[in-house]
Write a structure and sequence with these properties.
single chain, alpha+beta, Glutaredoxin, Glutathione S-transferase Yfyf (Class Pi), Chain A, domain 2, four-stranded mixed beta sheet, 10 helices, Glutathione S-transferase, Glutathione-S-Trfase_C_sf, glutathione transferase activity
Length: 231
């Protein structure tokens, strides 16, 4: 790869924000180097590339760093015209995709609260996740009025689907670790169908984390969080 076209992604394997960037790069067929970061011991490179947030993901292209996952996805879409177009041309549709992609962060934050709490606090967090998923499901009807297609060509994948999959691609592992079912064909048919269809795309499937590894990590985080809150 020519140095001026070199693409490097700094990430952390379990992060949905990193995963969405990886999925986009794969779908677009963009070769890249991946650098795994230990967020408890951040590398000098990460601190230099992202001095404000000091977080992953960071995409480096032509020696320039781009931070914040949604901004990175837009940069990828505007820089590389190969593969699927992630954002629609229509300004209104673009604004709607951006809104719901951003909204997914709120859903994720509530799911983290479920993971790190117990008792009444967890019940409240579960209720919040359920309500937010119901709102998301309603919002998706505007994009898929006839339901989500059973099969999905990678050329038709958009930014919103990439973001949904980055958060819920491991929903079965999340269920096992939390003991709560959030994503089902009955309660969240569009989210469930989108994850199922995207799983069949080789470029996406190749980047999925193993079920066992995700379960083990989530249980580890939960144990530590509950131990800290009990002290």
């Amino acid at each position: 790869m020519a140095e001026e076209n070199k693409v490097t992604l700094y990430g952390m394997w379990i992060s949905p924000y990193v995963k969405r960037v990886e999925f986009a790069l794969r779908l677009k067929g963009i070769p890249y180097e991946y650098v795994e970061e230990d967020l408890r011991n951040k590398s000098p490179s990460l601190l230099k590339l992202n001095p404000v947030r000091q977080e992953v993901p960071v995409l480096v292209h032509n020696g320039k760093a781009i931070v914040e996952s949604l901004f990175i996805l837009e940069y990828i879409d505007e820089t590389w015209k190969t593969g699927p177009q992630l954002l629609p041309e229509d300004p209104y549709k673009r604004s709607q995709v951006r809104f719901w992609a951003s909204y997914l962060q709120q859903v994720f934050e509530s799911m983290v609260s479920v993971l790190k709490s117990s008792g009444e606090a967890q019940e409240k967090a579960i209720k919040e996740v359920t309500e937010k998923l119901n709102l998301l499901e309603e919002g998706l009807k505007g994009f898929f009025p006839n339901g989500f297609p059973n099969s999905f060509d990678k050329e038709n994948v958009g930014l919103l689907e990439v973001v949904i999959f980055s958060h819920f691609g491991s929903y079965e592992a999340q269920e096992e670790a939390l003991g709560v079912k959030f994503i089902t064909p009955e309660k969240t048919p569009l989210i469930y169908s989108s994850v199922t269809a995207l799983t069949e795309i080789p470029a996406v499937k190749a980047e999925r984390n193993s079920h066992e590894k995700v379960v083990a990590f989530l249980k580890f985080v939960r144990r530590n969080a509950l131990r800290s809150s009990a002290e």
